[in-house]
Design a protein that fits this description.
Oligomer: single chain
CATH topology of the largest domain: Aspartate Aminotransferase, domain 2
Helix content: 40-55%
Largest sheet: 7 strands, mixed
Number of domains: 2
Radius of gyration: 22 Å
Distance between the termini: 47 Å
Length: about 450
């Protein structure tokens, strides 16, 4: 199917257009969304809901949402240290199945914990400067609970406008007093805190940020946020989903690099990026706060606990992360990240943000990004497309996810295929702009060189 044969609706519109359907019948009123989605599916332009047919290694096979086979280099999986198929991890999972079966069979508030989950709590506490640990069945549920579990209706949440969905939904579930500030804007935080405290001196304020923002691969100044929180008697929450375990000295991510491990009142972590499992945790200093969460955060109290298999896998992954092998894997991962970003710049691609396992590659217009994503699947690269409303309109991008086990050949292959797919879409439609300018590429190369020093 060439560009001229594709229905225009497949190259325009977004998920946000169908967020608020009208009508009395809840199940019928969503038909316009399905029509739009199915037009994209028929055109091969629906990039979501892919499924792997082999292990999510650096190269794998997968199926598209419509059942078409995709095979090639894999830069779409969140397995930053390449632990998901590690032999020790698989052995730990098998041993847990033999000992406990596959199911926790209960909430952690009742009989859902196992010796694996209790050992995991102790190991995480030791790694996080003796914080108290509360485990959750998913990273999303931990993020939701970190806000919903503590905040009450008269309290305030001051949140980075790009904070993850789980944090935003947790805030909405807890209070109507939600104040957004511009991305990474510490002055914006200070203005909102000053305004809140001028009217409310008695209720709690929670400032919410992430240590690494996954759509932009950028990082807040955590020390500056701590300082402004102290000035206005506010608490600081840091979501470390994407850098905990895979970045920084000892795997402590940007909290460790900025020497702010003790500077966050609430820390959230996810096991799904580095630790080869679903699940997540909240870390707090006082035991009283941890015990409160266990009974007042809904996604912990009313969800089944981590399965014994999940807890055993994360425990073994944490053992690797904190070992010499973990340090070697983090070093190899960062080498891959820097090498990939440099390669991209040499062909005019535009990697955004700071070096991290997430390399967002700016494309721009949604139509061009959709065509390029389809072409990449055809020629041997598996990469995730991100478009509005996850990012601003006209700022579509590929979210390339790097693993420690990617080889230099894998990196070269991806860059070659991305440049090829984008070149084809430019040729097919004169309306579609060219890739990043030489000046942009030069700027990106300079930032990469500086970060490597």
């Amino acid at each position: 199917m060439n560009y001229n044969e594709i229905e225009s609706s497949s190259l325009s519109g977004s998920l946000k257009d169908y967020r608020n359907p009208l009508g009395k019948n809840l199940t019928n009123r969503v038909q316009p969304f399905f029509d739009w989605q199915n037009n994209r599916r028929i055109s091969g332009l629906w990039p979501y809901a892919k499924s792997t047919t082999s292990a999510p290694l650096t190269a794998c096979t997968a199926l598209s949402d419509s059942g078409d086979l995709i095979a090639g280099v894999n830069f779409a999986s969140q397995d930053y240290l390449s632990l998901a198929s590690h032999s020790d991890i698989k052995e730990a999972a098998v041993a847990a199945v033999r000992d406990f079966g596959v199911h926790s069979a209960g909430s952690a508030a009742l009989l859902g914990n196992t010796r694996y989950s209790l050992s995991l709590e102790r190991a995480l506490s030791s790694h996080l400067d003796d914080c108290q640990i509360v485990l959750y069945p998913t990273g999303w549920s931990a993020g939701f609970a970190s806000v919903q579990g503590f905040i009450r209706s008269d309290d305030h949440v001051v949140m980075d406008v790009l904070a993850h969905s789980c944090l935003q939904e947790g805030a909405r579930a807890a209070t109507s007093n939600i104040h957004y500030y511009g991305h990474l804007n510490v002055q914006g935080v200070e203005r909102r805190l000053r305004r809140i405290r001028s009217n409310d001196a008695k209720n709690a304020i929670l400032v919410v940020t992430e240590s690494l923002f996954s759509m932009h691969s950028d990082v807040p100044d955590l020390r500056a946020l701590r300082s402004v929180c102290d000035a206005y008697d506010a608490n600081l929450l840091v979501d470390c989903a994407h850098d905990f375990g895979c970045m920084g000295r000892d795997g402590l991510g940007h909290l460790g690099d900025q020497q702010m491990l003790g500077g966050a009142d609430i820390i959230i972590g996810s096991f799904s990026k580095t630790f080869a499992s679903n699940g997540g945790f909240i870390a707090v200093k006082p035991r009283s706060a941890a015990e409160y969460l266990k009974y007042y955060s809904a996604t912990q109290t009313f969800s089944n606990a981590l399965s014994p298999v999940q807890a055993a896998v994360v425990l073994k992954a944490l053992e690797i992360v904190t070992s010499d092998e973990g340090a070697r894997r983090r070093k190899q991962l960062m080498r891959n990240i820097l090498r990939l970003r440099a390669m991209m710049c040499t062909v005019g691609l535009e990697p955004l943000g700071d070096p991290s396992p997430i390399v967002p590659v700016y494309i721009g217009r949604e139509d061009r990004a959709r065509l390029s994503a389809r072409r990449l699947s055809e020629i041997g690269a598996i990469v995730n497309l991100v478009e509005y409303p996850a990012v601003p309109r006209g700022d579509a991008r590929f979210r390339v996810q790097v693993m420690a086990d990617h080889t230099e050949d894998d990196l070269s292959r991806l860059v070659e295929l991305m440049a090829h797919s984008l070149g084809e879409t430019t040729t097919k439609s004169p309306r579609i702009p060219m890739v990043a300018s030489a000046r942009t590429a030069k700027r990106q190369r300079s930032s990469i060189e500086a970060s490597a020093v």
